Amino acid sequence: MDRRTGASLTLLGLTESWAESTLREFGWWGDDGPTPGAEQVMWALARSPDPNAALRGMERLMNAVSDRTELDAALRSDVRLRGRLTALLGSSTALTDHLVTHPDRWHRLAGDVGPADAEGAAATMLRAVGADPDAPPAGSPGGSAARLTGAEAIAALRAVYRDEVMALAAADLAAVGEPELPVMEIEDVTARLSDLAAAALKAALAVAVAEVGEVGRLAVIAMGKCGGHELNYVSDVDVVFVAEPADQATTKLANRMMRVAGEACFQVDANLRPEGRQGALVRTLEGHVSYYKRWAKTWEFQALLKARPVAGDAELGKAYTEAVAPMVWSAAGREDFVAEVQAMRRRVEEHIRPDLADRELKLGPGGLRDVEFAVQLLQLVHGRTDESLRSPTTLEALAALRDGGYVGRDDGANLAASYRFLRLLEHRLQLQRMRRTHQLPPPQDTEALRWLARAARMRPDGRYDVVGVLLNEWQRNARRVRRLHQKLFYRPLLSAVARVTADLGDVGRLSEEAAKARMKALGWVSPEGALNHLRALTSGISRAAAIQTALLPVLLDELSRTPDPDRGLLAYRRVSEALADTPWYLRLLRDEGQVANRLMHLLGTSALVPDLLVRAPEVLRMLAAPSTGFSDDLTRDPAEVANSLRLSVARHTDPASAAATARSLRRHELLRVACADLLGVLSTPEVCAALSSVWVAVLQATLDAVERTLKAEGTERAARIAVIGMGRLGGSELGYGSDADVLFVCEPVEGADEREAVRYATTVAETVRRTLGAPSPDPALIVDADLRPEGRNGPLVRTLESYRSYYERWSEVWEAQALLRARPVAGDADLGRRFIELIDPIRYPPEGLSAAAVAEIRRIKARVDAERLPRGADRSTHTKLGHGGLADVEWTVQLLQLQHAGDIPELRTTSTLEGLREAVAAELISPSDAAALEAGWTMATRARNAIMLVRGKPGDQLPRSGRELVAVAHAMGYPADGDPGVFVDDYRRATRRARAVVERVFYGW
User: Fold this and answer.
1) Lesser CB count within 10 Å: N end or C end of the chain?
2) Full-prediction pTM beyond 0.90?
3) Is there a contact between 76 and 110 (Cβ–Cβ < 8 Å)?
4) Domains within the chain, CATH numbers bracketed
């Protein structure tokens, strides 16, 4: 090949070395390039998705046909044949193989001959197997049976079916090879493919009747894409069988029909029948109706939306669709409608491999299922009262939704365009090898992407090559589908409630009742209340109302996925009204998508977060992140936070203002931790440590402020004071609603006597308790000193020597147990250290515990279990006093410490989990038992915190059912649309295992 010829062929896309010789053999290429009359053939080859594959296929066909001259002449003169054949050969290796096997079938692609219509296809396939197309259909009384059976019938049906698909594909692709030829719309292609499938099922049933014999009445109901008249080139055909009678004979007939069609044409799938694979293949009409009335789930009615008779007894098929239609169009009124539809959608998404999600045309985000799901849900909601919406075809239904005002005109047109684009790519990918696929080629496979782009009639646009154009179009359409999914559900709701609609643009106009129906279907228990909130947020002509109008479709979509959308929307309204004068609030939600998404997750789950947020709005900024992950501010070091709090409070001179500042900073920190907890950023020990740290900082800052005030008022400092943390505060295990258990210790300063020291310290302690405990809308700051010697009847403050005297003379075993968690948290550090030295021999007795002391601890625990559990509480799900709950685990660890910490210094810790780990290291408990106790403690702690987050007030009992239980489960990381019973089962399992260890290790049973 000379350089000039090589360059010319390269321009035509023919890069193979044999291309020149092949073209010369055909007489299409001479010394000066294309020969006269062959130019258009060469250009058609060049426009093919793969010119080399097209030329290779043409060579095979030329060698196979009986008259090469006839084909050559037709290619030079017939623009339809030229466009169809060259595009087909360059697009589908599978159909090229079929054409080469049956070379004279090229005539099907010539002239005005086109793909057969529904009746023509059915007649052709029935004749191919020797059945009479004019006789009653097979499966009905006196229906026609095929003359061919077995392998002969299957071969004949396979050949004619592939002929029809080839003719349709060639017409579909013709505009690729010859741009002047008409473009076949995707809905026409899918409808014809559905008609071909229906025709093949009729022929397969005729073959089955010939083999099995006539056996009663059988109707074949198409479901899925075939039922919706929107089948792919390669797809399973979903069916349901109805028979009269539904006996062994009709079951055998249905089975044989499926096998014939499966071997000849396509896989037939009957798994959408009642009870799925476990259900009977064939049922009577009465059996179907009975099942759907009593047992069917919502997704089954959604599937029935596309049901249509395609083969067999026409009257029986019609009776079936008429019987199930009323149930389909009342499904949206079912109580479990939203939950079941969401569960089905989740199952679809779970089928996607993470590494393929960005290439998935069908199931991925912004894919075909997003469009189909959205359209079907709107059909089910509004089709109850509007029969114009009841089309089984996605594009027809979308057009009806648009015409009826349920979807905006522009939105409907854009969604339809994206759907057509995605289906076009899907069809081209399937045609190549006639295999079922929905995945784009990987980004690194530029040759495959270039082929796909050319097959989809794409061209370079000046900025990008053809591969870049394809990838940009795919990403643009996927983003548009995701965005319109949100608008389809929620944007029209705003036009139904807005007083001024100028800013709403081209949206569907819903009536008040239609808007309520949609809100109810999307998960709102009180649609009227939700619409009132929307009305309040979007009314008026202010800039804020305009921004809310733009934001709300996205926000409502996020809220609908939370456990309590009603409470979430109310909380969003409260927050928006409280922050109406905050200039950056709406701008942050508008410009930072992650902030809006995370905020809806928080508001739809927690009652505590919105209560705190209206008074600490700056925390919203922490929800932003650069691209992935979370802001560093959301996971700040608790020590840094505590130091900042103490420094801020130190600037105030009176206790009231100091406490107000401390409370404000604590509110900020409480909200930060709650957000991080609900978003899964902090572990349970980290949450407890952060909450404990801020409590300690508040105590220290308030104590300092009180002493400064007394000094300013002229009161001489008569004592050094130390605050000893007890209980969960001492163990750094506080929850959101925990009180601060403390002891106050004092010591006279030089020149003061004990009485003056105690009086001064008592004044300070009482002022601290009163100041922090003052009424506040924030979670309470209760300083509880009831663990002091003699309890509430004893003095609030004692000197170090008084404590020493009391513990030496009067201390009981329960007080030694309480001291296990004592640690200095505020005040004089040296005094706190000496208090710890004082109590160490008491809480870590060198000689361990006597048998009587162990029995006493067990007796007290049993009494607590019996007397303190609230009336009506469920012991299996009470987080504090229930079996395997917090008290069980903590008392078990504390018993081990009392028994062995005198000899094992490593056990001397105030932390429950650290104590468990050290007990394992000391071989006091097996690793498996320790793991069970840790799992029970962690589960109970997380659940207790989740209850506070969800309710906004402390609680120890898991909700028994309802949205509150779903919210608690979701706060612990379970899916909002999942079964909360899974969480309850997990909780009971963890605490049951922990209880078994408690009974052996603590009680010795």
Assistant:
1) C
2) no
3) no
4) 338-523 (1.20.120.330), 529-629 (no CATH), 636-843 (3.30.460.10), 851-1001 (1.20.120.330)
